[in-house]
Amino acid sequence: MYGKKNTDELNPLQGVRGQNMEKSITTILTIFDVYKEIAGLKASVEEHKKKLDAYKTARKYNFISDLVGGKTKYEENLAKIRSLELQLSTLMEEAEKGHTEDEIEKNKQKSTLTTAKLNIETAIHSKEMKLRLVKMSLEYGLYPTEADMSALQEFFPNVNLRKLYEVEMYHQKLAKILDAQFLNEQTAIENEITMLQSQLEDVKTQIKELGFVGNLSKEFLDRHSEIKGEIDALNTQNQAYLTLTDLQEAKAAADEILKRSIEDILRE
């Protein structure tokens, strides 16, 4: 059409000048009432793109394991996992007695709970010490009594008691404020001690429920945890690679299906 500048014979499917080809093709498909045939496919592509973007964002902010490499790294991780599993098997065989995984896990739980018990008991002791100091401050007060003043005048006959009483009146007002703060602190500490004692009883109950689980050396448990931790970390990294690959392949497949469908419709 004259004046519309749409006589580009090299891009016959383009609509408005400057418009990208995707929008131009969408316009043509809509005019011929065939857009509905690919609308679902476009929605599928968009959904796969959102999943892929969401996964990449989650990795970026470390909400899930970050990708550690491509296929080469994935294969290296598999080899290392096999090596670590062999080490774990050897470690189990070299133990003084044959221990099942369940026994080893119970030993780890007992060790963790025992450490937690000691930490809680230490915290309770610290809080009780602090509570005693607060109670002493409330009991003995922070200002002198009348007897204290009389004793002071005995040693210093010329002392200006009136001035001292004026100063002490201010001190008494200040002490009342401090007493209120001490009372609040006393209540807070007592609540903390109650909470810690509840936690301690819970830990003791868990230890009791585990019962006798045998004695495994700390060195054995530490090494077992170290190897298991490495295996779990490598498996998590590899799973991240597989998940990303699956999402990328699913999006590429959806893109290809959409592309072929559009080509078929345009050709027709």
Rounded to the nearest angstrom, the radius of gyration is 38 Å
* H and E string: HHHHHHH
Secondary-structure content class: mainly alpha
Total DSSP helices: 7
Percent strand equals under 5%
**Helicity level:** over 70%
Distance between the termini: 25 Å
Question: How does the SSE layout of this entry go?
Answer:
Layout: H1 21-31, H2 36-60, H3 71-94, H4 101-140, H5 146-155, H6 161-210, H7 218-267
Helix pairs in contact: 2-7, 3-7, 4-6
Short synopsis of the structure:
By secondary structure, the chain is mostly helical.
Describe the structure.
78% of the residues lie in helices and 0% in strands. The chain has a domain at 71-247. The protein has helices at 21-31, 36-60, 71-94, 101-140, 146-155, 161-210, 218-267. The radius of gyration is 38 Å and the shape is elongated. With 268 residues, the protein is mostly helical.
Entry keywords:
268 residues, mainly alpha, 7 helices, elongated
